[in-house]
Amino acid sequence: GNSVTQMEGPVTLSEEAFLTINCTYTATGYPSLFWYVQYPGEGLQLLLKATKADDKGSNKGFEATYRKETTSFHLEKGSVQVSDSAVYFCALTFVTGGFKTIFGAGTRLFVKA
Amino acid sequence: KAGVTQTPRYLIKTRGQQVTLSCSPISGHRSVSWYQQTPGQGLQFLFEYFSETQRNKGNFPGRFSGRQFSNSRSEMNVSTLELGDSALYLCASSLPSGGAWSYEQYFGPGTRLTVT
Question: What does A60-107 look like in DSSP terms, one character per residue?
Answer without folding.
Answer: TTEEEE-BTTTTB--EEESS--GGG-EEEEEEEEEEESEEEEEE---E
